[in-house]
Amino acid sequence: MGLSLLSIISEEFTSTREDLPVIRKEELKLLLSKQCNVIIKFFIEYLQYLKNVPDRRSCAPQISKALETFSSYASWLELSEDIDWIRAITTIQSFYDSNISSISIACLNCIVELMSKQFIPKNAEHVILGAFNVMLQVTQRAVDVDLDEEYLEKVIFLISQFMTRHVQRAEKIPNFPMTNFLNNLLKITFKQTDYQLYEDCLDVWISLTDHLVGQQDVSRKQSDGNSLYHHVLLTLCQEVIKRCYLSMNSIYLDQIDDERPDAQGRTDQDLYLEKCIDLIESISSCTSPLLIIRGILSTPISKPIDAKFYMRCIARLSFTFCDHFESTQNDVLMLISRVLQWLNEPVLVVDVFELIRIIIPWLTMYNSKSVNSKQVIESILDGCYKFPYGVSNMRRVDPILHASCKCIRHISTDVKPKYLMELEAFKKILSCFKNYLDPQFANSKFGTNVPITGTIVLQDLAVAASEAIFCASHDESWQTKTFSFLMGSSSNVENDGLLIVHRYKSAMEQKDVNNICLLLDVCGSIIINLQSIQSKQIVYDSFRDVISSIPIVLKFNNSMIYSTTLQFVHCVFRNLKSQCGQSFVEQVVTIVIDGFQNDNSSNAIVNLLDIFTVVIEDGKNRFVGIHEKIISILKRMDPNVAPDSFFKLLFDLLKFGWSIYFFDINLQMVTATPKSINAQNDFVFIMSCFLNAFKSTSTDLNVFDENVKHLVELNNTTRLFCRPFFRGEMCGAFCNVFLDVLVKKSHPLLKDKIIDIIFRMNVGDCWNLFFSFLQAFLASKNLSEEEIKVLIGRSFVGNLYQKDVQQFTKCLTNFIADLCFLLK
């Protein structure tokens, strides 16, 4: 009963319960701390008495309870000189090798609590050394004896606390047996047959490698000149790699689910391999990356299931190829030759393309230093070509097509060979693209009802090929000619220009919804990826007829065309706004606004908001006429449909259009006045949207966070919080909402940011207003005048909080805690 009472006292006196004011919590903890010397002394004497009982099993419940209660005190007590911690550790140590599992685990819990302390005073380092000694003995026991799973799990957790918090301290201890300890940990790791325990061991090693990577000198030297970690880490890496080849570890890896993917499409087996690769990468950073990657490259691969890990691991370590370019040429050429052979294995194709895409930076160096680069690139392009052209089922192989086209695109933009257009493989890819534009080919290949499923092929191939054209040469006439070739100049159709434009016009005449959407997607994919001014002008001239048809297409009474056209307009305005001209932009925006319906899809609304944002971000106020129209359509929208885009647009309206709403933009003055009643109403509407989002309990945490950032940035650029039209009721409304959020604890992760913005809104000469807001807020909670006076007076003592945000945070935190206590 006495032990139970001590346990309850520890829990209650140190709890974070909300029904006690902050001051009372501190008093209780201080009161208990003064008696802890007596309490710990009682534990030591009681445990020593129990240790001498002949039949330990008869008193096992008492021993376990005493150790558990000691553990609860050790979790919050500081390592002060007043307590004889060494005697306590020595007493606890006598129980760790007990044959009674509950006692052994309770003993380890005590040592874990001591090991978990981040800050160790200099006069208490001897205490943590005592905990280290227990850990070393426990580790040796785990090697020598087969322990039960629960005890072993606790041992691994103890070691993890040492690795994350104290390994640097142990390195400085003379004669600390680090090598012996790491070798024991190595044996424990690969002794595990349960994959969860094995993963826990890997986490311990990851903590060690993270520590080493963070050190300037990662190769700690012993007195004999040998690296402290080098040999152990290389052995660890070798064994981890062996465990990852699935064909050789089927019995062990059958425990890991490889069928049910998570939200990101990854199975437990994928996550396991990812963790192993993370560790291998960290080890390579601490030792010899070239040695490790060559060890992986030399591994014979007999089954496709092993090739997945092989390629993913090589992809992660591919930086080694560039860092050691001269010495890795033969290795990479052998690797490329090997992985291209795996393109015949459907389950490996995506990984092959992903690996090739990642080592393209090495190909850039190889291109400039070797005459064989042409053959290497041609062989890769040959491998890429067969998938977009040879596919017969679009739906089944979309990921393969996407990976192939992405690889082509990276070769086109990163390698940038001047002879790219001369390569036969690349010419075949361009012909493949032109075939997809040919109606007869598309119909024979996919049938007349599936043109939309080919979008990914056309988009990726179009982007890859067009970027290659604009990167391969700076000759504008050559670029124009080659781009016309790519898009299929239609010489047999008079005055119709490019084949893609001719197909688009034909689709418009026939009102072919599917093909209109498909071709707009292709053109938009090319436009959005343009970089140079000359490439933008070439593409604009080529697609002028498509772009000029936007006002007509927007008037089609079809939701799919409307949504696709909005996306295309966003691409055009993002990259070709200056080429289109101000009058065309205003015309399109007006049509978009006039055609908006409240029941449009969320995708259409997101695209619509993005279009407005691009126009507003012009920054030169050339589009003053459409600000009011944008506000009018925002008033009809539900912010919850696309909150990120909605509030980003509101923020941009004020940030880039401040002078549209107010006469004075001089940041040294705070006397700006609205230009008109409409301007004032629009400003009030924008601020009300932010205020209502903060009020709503359904507002997403990320949206809430972004909106706080928006207001802070507006204040930084326009001194919003100091303006007379913001002070008063508007500032009070925001403060009330933020205080209510803090009291309800609806967004605890944003507590510091909320307190910071309250401070910013009231800093300067606004504190009298703040306290009037505060009193009104407390009055709304049905508190008496006396309670309000005491609450404010006790929390906001002095005036330091008026200048220091940290002091204000402390005062407001205490105020909220005491208020929560009163409202209970």
TrEMBL record:
InterPro entries: ARM-like, ARM-type_fold, Exportin-1/Importin-b-like, XPO6
Coiled coil location: none
Gene3D superfamilies: Leucine-rich Repeat Variant
Keyword annotations from UniProtKB, A to Z: Cytoplasm, Nucleus, Protein transport, Transport
Localization terms from the record: Cytoplasm; Nucleus
Taxonomic superkingdom: Eukaryota
GO cellular component terms, semicolon-separated: cytoplasm; nucleus
GO biological process: protein export from nucleus
All residue ranges annotated as the Exportin-1/Importin-beta-like domain in the record: 3-111
Entries under PANTHER family matching the protein: EXPORTIN-6
Similarity remark: Belongs to the exportin family.
Protein name: Exportin-6
Organism from which the protein derives: Acrasis kona
Lineage, top ranks: Eukaryota, Discoba, Heterolobosea, Tetramitia, Eutetramitia
